[in-house]
Amino acid sequence: MSKAKMSEVEAQYQRINIFTGKSRRLIYYRPLLKKAYQVVKEDVKLIQIYHFRLFIVLFVSLMAVIITEEDLLLTVGAGAITWLLIEAWFYFFKIRTFSPQPNFIPPKRIGFIQTHLDEHYKVVNIRIVSYAAITIAAIAGAFVGDYQPLYFVGMLGIAAFGLFQVGLLIYVQSLRKKGK
Fold first, then answer.
1. Which of 47, 146, 158, 166 could staple 138 via S-S, CB 3.0–4.6 A?
2. How far apart are CA 30 and CA 18, in angstroms?
3. Contact yes or no for 36/107 (Cβ under 8 A)
4. pLDDT for 12-36, tens place per residue?
């Protein structure tokens, strides 16, 4: 693990595969394709949208469950179409506007826990409270609401994810207090 402190912005960028290259330029790296592209700061938000496409697909699918009253074919279809549209938008319209960076070798990645340790402790505390609120709301929605089984399982999945994040971030805070 690297001992060098990185700024909060650099930690946030590294989570979505954006690194600082030569001349302090932002480089977006696609690890599966091993390709790098130079981006400007305005493109970072669009890359974030692409990076969180799974959550967008899950949200659209969850809305489709509610709207179609749990029609599985329409729910899966809405999610698949959303996924395809996001992939097509990014590949055909966005990534082609980035200038390729040949021979870019990304720096050694710093782990998830280390990036949270590099963030300000108040930011991590806000995330803990936010994920705890999401977990409580999802559990309450799952048990209080009179919904179908697919919605119930989805809400429990959201609650499990929130609980996992809370546990991980509390672990990060405990490492910080020990001086790591």
1. 158
2. 9
3. no
4. 676 677 777 777 788 888 877 888 8
